[in-house]
Structures are given as C-alpha cells and as structure tokens.
Amino acid sequence: MTTTSRMISPIDFAKDGKQCDYLRLPHSVHRSAYGWLPLPLVCIKNGDGPTVLLMSGNHGDEYEGQVTLTRLVKELEPEDIQGRVIIFPMANFPAAKAGLRTSPIDDINLNRVFPGDPDGTPTLQIAHYIETVLLDMADYMLDLHSGGSSLMYLPSTILGRSGDEAAFDKKVGMTMAFGAPYAFMFPQGAMGSHSTAAAIRQNVIAIGTEVGGGGTVTPEALRICERGVRNVLRHLGVLKTGEIEPPETPTRIIAAEDHEAFTYAAEEGLFEPVVDLGAEVTAGQLAGYIHHPETPWREAEEVRFQTAGVLVCKRVPGRIERGDCLFHTGADTTIG
User: How far is residue 235 from each of residues 179, 211, 241, 246, 251, measured CA to CA in Å?
Assistant: First the structure.
C-alpha cells in the first residue's frame, strides 16, 4: 500500500505568481487507456504569509461556491495578496461535472471519506490528496457548501467546535468576518470524516458554509458567499485590497442541541410543507403532510417538529422516501 498520492500536479506551490492548471488523477477507462481526470487547481502566491485553501464542489450539485471561486480566480492577482491562496473549485470533479452530490464513477460522497486512500477509487484518492497535500500546506481552509439538489439553506456558516480553544477562537473570527446571516454549530461528533475533520488532523483552522441550494444559484446567496470569502481573506491579512464589508444584519449563532433538531420522513410519498425557511417553530408544531397518491384513499400522515428553533433548512423535491431529511432547526446559543 502506498502512502503518497498518485495524483500529479504541474503547479509549483512554492513559486510566486499565479498558476492555473489541472491536477491529474490517473483514470484508465475503455476510451482512454492512459488517461487522467483534469481537476482545476489554481495557486496565487506573493511572498511570505498565511496559506488559505478555498474549496468548493466537494459536493458536485452545490453551485454557489463554484461560481464564487470561479469568479475569484479571474479577479485575484499576485499583487492583491500577501501569502498564498490555493483555489480548488471542483474538488470532486466527476461529481461537479455531472451536477451530482456523489461521483458518478464510484458513487462516493467525498465529504464522508476523509482521510481517503491513495490506492482507492477516484473519490478516495481526491480525499487523500486534499488531506495530505493541500491541507498539509494550508494554515486556513474555507470549504464552501450549500444544500445541493435536495435541500435549501438559509445562508449560514458552519462552525465546528474542537478541543483547542485558541483554534476555535480563530474559527469564530473567520465566521464573524464572513458575515452570513446565520452561523450554525452542529452536534458534537457530527463532522466525522468530513473535510473539517481532515483540517483538524492537519492543524488547519477551517470553517464551512451552507449557502443556499435547491440545485440552483440565487442572487442573494451568491452575493453573501462572494462577500464572505473576500471578507475572510481580508480578515486573515491575505487579501490586501478593499475593506471588510459588514453584513446587513449581525450573524445569529444557532446550534442543533441534538439530532432531534432534524425532521425526517417516516413514510414515502409526496411531502407538503406548511412552514417555510426562517420560521420560528415550536416542539410538536405541524411541519407538513405526507400524501400517498398511489393509494389516494389513504389518510395523509402528519409530520411534526421535535424541537423548537428557527427553520434553517428544508427539503426541495416533493417526492420523498423514508429516511429523507425534510427540515432542520437551530436554537439560539452562545459561543463564549
């Protein structure tokens, strides 16, 4: 078993300047015996300073981050920064090209398999490269997510607590600089083998986002995402141009105290929600109905919230199966 990546990068990460090329993932298939998958990768370096990894396309059907970083690649020049910015806009390239959450090659969710495997399938190799090469060079990471095809989120940053209070304070600083309307703290242990767990193993200060979703790009979500990324780069002293742009409203800190904050479908059918994003809900309140057009004489099932809080996420497709996430809420909390 190897421990080094089989992926090849033509980029010299130690070189000053702006380099745009493709990370090469060997992929031998019927139509291309010695072929490779081209994962777009950009490195912009100017002298000494922190290294920031900006990543999107971890899930291929989450588009706000991909648009944000695509624009940023064209706008940023070496003279704009102090340090190094590495931009990886289509992290799981096969999934992002297909517009899918998981890779169409190996059907794997990149954000569930860190630290990956250099001898594994393409998604496992990508996870291994991110953790052992990109994060090994980085001081900070911003992993841009949204709700993808199945969920819509209120624009939020994701803040994971770790045992290192000094590192957590830096994450809070990045979160406040990003300036999303909400900052969400998931339950302890929820991050598992996500990119944020990889960052912790590599001593990288990292936050994520859930900005929009629904299989589309909305102007509001994109505006918040683009402003937030630039603000974080300015906050870290890497982007020298411009000033941190304050948000329209202060960031509201919320958390899921436990997994009861997530509302799941207990039956398959068609889901009719009766509340919308941003609503303040109470435990036991009606969330919606599950209808059964296959047996239209059957009564619809009621779905109710288990915990109180603000509704930060809701399912988009109407057709559901048992186990699908329909909503999740967040309750106000403090980060002190």
Answer: 11, 20, 11, 12, 16
Query: 3-state class of 90 per DSSP?
Result: coil
Candidates 2.60.40.230, 3.40.50.1220, 2.40.50.100, 2.170.130.30; CATH matching 259-332: 2.40.50.100
The rounded distance, in Å, linking the Cα atoms of 130 and 151 is 26
CATH 3.40.630.10 domain extents, the chain: 17-255
- Comparing C-alpha atoms, which of 135, 235, 124 is closest to residue 179? 235
The residue type found at 323 is G
Which tokens hold the place of 189? 């242990």
For residues 312 and 325, the answer to whether their CB atoms sit within 8 Å is no
End-to-end CA distance of the chain: 44
Q: How far apart are CA 286 and CA 297, in angstroms?
A: 22
Residue 306, both tokens: 């288990």
Peptide bond into 115 cis (omega under 30): yes
Share of the chain above pLDDT 70, in %: 98
CA distance 274 to 300: 13
pLDDT, averaged across the chain: 95
The CATH architecture one would assign to domain 17-255 is 3-Layer(aba) Sandwich (3.40)
Grade residue 191 by pLDDT with cuts at 50, 70 and 90: low
CA dist 306 and 282 (Å) reads 8
Question: Does position 14 have pLDDT exceeding 70, yes or no?
Answer: yes
pLDDT reported for residue 214: 95
Three-class SS of residue 180? coil
